[in-house]
Specification:
Structural class: mainly alpha
């Protein structure tokens, strides 16, 4: 697949940065990862708000949205800026370093708190069943999957979202 921009832009891109194809592909991959992480973290927050009226875990699900949104906006904007506005001239490296540092500086604490306060830490097996096979949802079994299926759904979503955020960084 050939790019559809002018020969002059291609010449400038190749002249200033011979590996611009690889960088463009990496920016596309980061954009896709950021979009997936955004959807997963937003979904985890929505499910938590729907089933649990608590401020306990909400911040650990929406806090990672900041580095994800920055990456989701930064990667396509810089790529399009180089191609369309600057016509192949590179952007100053300090711009890239600054934004990547910002994504890392927000992403590392986000992952730490999202994993540290995630719903998946509450998972536990069923400890007690009645003889007829039913499960009492109090006491020891309160946090088991048959009694609290929403935290298992949110926990799985949180794990997947943190994996995407980790790959994004």
């Amino acid at each position: 697949m050939r790019p559809t921009f002018s020969a002059e832009t291609r010449r400038r891109l190749q002249e200033h940065d011979p590996k611009w194809h690889v960088k463009a592909i990496l920016q596309l991959i980061c954009t896709i990862l950021a979009f997936n992480a955004l959807i997963l973290f937003a979904d985890a927050t929505a499910i938590t708000n729907k089933y649990y009226v608590t401020a306990y875990n909400n911040w650990s699900d929406w806090m990672p949205l900041f580095p994800v949104l920055i990456s989701l906006i930064y990667n396509p904007v810089t790529f399009l800026l180089v191609l369309l506005r600057r016509r192949g001239k590179p952007i100053h490296p300090g711009w890239h370093v600054g934004f990547h540092f910002l994504i890392w500086a927000l992403g590392i604490p986000s992952i730490v708190f999202s994993v540290g306060w995630g719903w998946f830490w509450w998972w536990q097996p069923v400890y007690y069943r009645y003889r007829n096979g039913s499960i009492p949802c109090r006491g020891y079994n309160f946090w088991s999957e048959p009694c609290q299926p929403a935290i298992y759904t949110v926990g799985r979503i949180e794990i997947a979202a943190n994996v995407f955020l980790g790959l994004l960084m």
